[in-house]
Amino acid sequence: MRLRRFIGLDMPAALRHVKEALGHEAVILQTRACPEGGIEITAAVDADLVTTPLAARDGAAGDDLVAMTRELSELAARVRELDRAVRPSTAAIAGLGAEARALAERLALQGLAAGLAGTIGASFERARSEGAAAGAALEVSLACHLAPSTPAEARVIAFVGPTGAGKTTTIAKLAARHVGGGRTHVGLVMADTQRVGAREQLGAYARLLGVPMQIARDGRELRAVLAAFADRDAVYVDTAGLGGDPADAGALERLLAGAGEPVARTAVVSAGASEVALRAAWRQLGRLGAATCVITKLDEGASLGTACTWLHEQRLALAWLSTGQRVPEDLAVPSGSALVRWLVAA
Ligand SMILES: Nc1nc2c(ncn2[C@@H]2O[C@H](COP(=O)(O)OP(=O)(O)O)[C@@H](O)[C@H]2O)c(=O)[nH]1
Ligand SMILES: [Mg+2]
Known about the structure:
By secondary structure, this protein is an alpha/beta fold. The protein is 49% helix and 17% strand. The protein starts with a strand and ends with a helix. Residues 50-57 have low confidence and may be disordered. Magnesium ion is lined by residues 167-168, 192, 198, 238. Guanosine-5'-diphosphate (GDP) is lined by residues 163-169, 241, 268, 296-297, 299-300, 322-325, 330.
């Protein structure tokens, strides 16, 4: 697009100049009365249609407009480039139809790895082609890929993870659910003997819920506590937070290995944890053989995407979503609708 400015004594004369110079393809962009008399028209024409080099004949105003147009088109090209860079562009997403591609791109922008987002998009597309409504197809695809069925619950479960992730709070919520659901045979074990106040925190919940709590400082004590809790249907073991020191996981593993019966390990991590922090946590959680996971603090605004990608990579089954501090209300099963709420609609 080239721009030029024409001046005539009146409008017909100015228009005549436009047509003579640019032909009938010219587009009038602006007209104005000149202060010194006459009419000025700014007109544009496709550059391919102009044979004479316009820049040589343009006035200063025309040059400014040409420069501005060039800047705008350069800006548009840059925006397109950035858009391409931000949009995930794996083959898995690019090969999808428009609806599924839009979904996969949204999931990727929420922090889900592009490959995983593409897989969910493909599953969504399949469900749609089989006649499912969009909402149902979305719920099924998310649940199937992000929260496949969890392993059968063991009698004894240890909750392991970084300090402050929400282990004790999650245990209190689960214990309260059992008590509220009439399954009153719950026992709590406090194996975090390092942190000041840890024992009091779990003890307070135990008293509130009317369930027994015992302390276990090592494997031998844990074995004795579990024997005393032989009548309990569910025993939750609270553990010391794992820091950066690999020795933490080693010490905890020795304690749990002394239990004398299988102890399932459920990882507890915050949705707000960065990818780097999650990878560091896995170095410890992997050693402990965690098979299921609770993602906490979803109410604090972080997307589920990063944590879900991590879970998928480490083959951890998502068991619960913790969505706030309230005990026992803020704990959700990772159903399709919960995943839509916390991943897609978040
Ligand atoms: N906002 C929010 N806070 C949580 C959640 N879960 C736990 N917390 C809070 O996080 C803090 C640490 O929790 P705690 O259970 O003591 O963590 P632990 O060190 O892993 O046992 C406490 O203040 C909890 O109330 C959650 O889902 N959302
Ligand atoms: Mg704790």
